[in-house]
Amino acid sequence: MVADTVRKVDHSALRTNQAFIIALLLVAFVTDQWPLVAFVAAVMIVGTIWPGAALFQQVYRRILRPLKIVKPDILADNPEPHRFAQGLGGVFTLGSAAALAAGMPVPGWALAWLVIILAALNLFLGFCAGCFVYYQLNRLGVPGFSIAPPERERRV
Q1: pLDDT band at 5 (very low <50, low <70, confident <90, very high)
Q2: CA–CA distance, 126 with 23 (Å, rounded to integer)
Q3: For residue 1, is it within any domain?
Q4: Alpha-carbon distance 80 to 84, whole Å?
Q5: Residues 6 or more apart from 100 whose CB is under 8 A from it?
Q6: Contact by Cβ (8 Å): 76, 154
Q7: Model confidence, pTM
Q8: pLDDT in the model for residue 151
Q9: Which range marks the domain in which residue 112 is found?
Q10: Nearest to residue 43, comparing CAs of 30, 33, 55?
């Protein structure tokens, strides 16, 4: 794959994913349910490894978009940094669930809140911290981070 090839990404699917992550982790916190944190971690990790199985994005594609509840927002973009960000969030959420299951609520909820805050930053302000990390690793020439950032974001 050519490093500067830019494809199209539906950012409404990404925002729906972030909204579900935030909502479910907040419910888990309020109800003190670490299994729900583990569920969110599993959804994020599975969706990173197998994008077609990304549950929250499937809700968008199969329910919210067809019912016109959420409209597509297709942008010229690369999916790899977003998958990296989701995978990183999934690892932090898995760490959160493991800490909570082991009876360590302070580090467990701190990790969950880190994911909530970063997902909210992306959802509400459009800044993807994981994408930023991915592109910095690309700039440093780290193997596996071969996709360069788009020259500018354009609506398609």
Answers
A1: low
A2: 18
A3: no
A4: 6
A5: 34, 37, 108, 109, 112
A6: yes
A7: 0.90
A8: 74
A9: 8-139
A10: 55
